Amino acid sequence: MHHHGYLWAGPKLRFDQEALRRPPPPEPPPAGSRPELVQRYREVAAEFPASDLPPLETAYWLVKPRSLVRGTWRAPPDAAAWLGDRLAEFAPRFACEAQRDGRHRTALVVSAAQRIGWGGDVSLGFYLERPSFLSLALVTCLPGHKHLELGCPLA
Predict the structure, then answer these.
(1) How far apart are CA 24 and CA 150, in angstroms?
(2) Is the pLDDT of residue 126 over 90?
(3) 108 φ, ψ (degrees, to nearest 5)
């Protein structure tokens, strides 16, 4: 088992482009579908895996470019420590004052270590000033994971 870390920070308007954050349907539109539907399917199928935007489902980070992986760790505490470092780095920019509190951030790190320790994924999001958005994720790769078909960036 190992864990990959992902980070995205950018304009909230770009983050809100949900169509680019959804994977394409597993099957293309049936023959005879409207041309605009077929074209939209092709666009999403090409854009989703290449986009740096956080996917709506955390595990889908695994189909994104390998260059987006910010780190890989075998031990959950190491992955959670990376998460804690990123939270500390961005904390001064958090729009919500309560999220800047060190105790709150520590609780998030402890929870993340526990969750990935039993094979779960972690996805956190924070509004930053200007309006911007920060997305942090830890994705677990392990045999038998429910999203094993998505592959692993190390493969």
Answers:
(1) 13
(2) yes
(3) -65, -40
Q: What is the sign of the dihedral through the CA atoms of 95, 98, 100 and 105?
A: negative
Please give the pLDDT value at position 80. Answer: 98
Amino acid at position 22, single letter: R
Distance CA 108, CA 13 (A): 26
Please state whether the predicted TM-score (pTM) of the whole model is above 0.85: yes
Q: What is the 3-state secondary structure (H, E, C) of the chain?
A: CEEEEEEEEEEHHHHCCHHHHCCCCCCCCCCCCCHHHHHHHHHHHHHHHHCCCCCCCHHHHHHCCHHHEEEEECCHHHHHHHHHHHHHHHHHHECCHHHHCHHHHHHHHHHHHHHHHCCCCEEEEEEECCCEEEEEEEEEECCCCCCHHHCCCCC
How many other C-beta atoms are found inside a 10 Å radius of the C-beta of residue 83? 26
Kindly list the strands in the beta sheet with 2-11, ordered across the sheet, starting from the edge strand earlier in the chain.
Answer: 69-73, 2-11, 132-141, 122-128
Mean pLDDT of 101-122: 96
Residues 6+ apart with CB under 8 A from 8: 15, 52, 53, 54, 134, 135
Query: Which of 73, 68, 59 has the alpha carbon at shortest distance from 1?
Result: 73
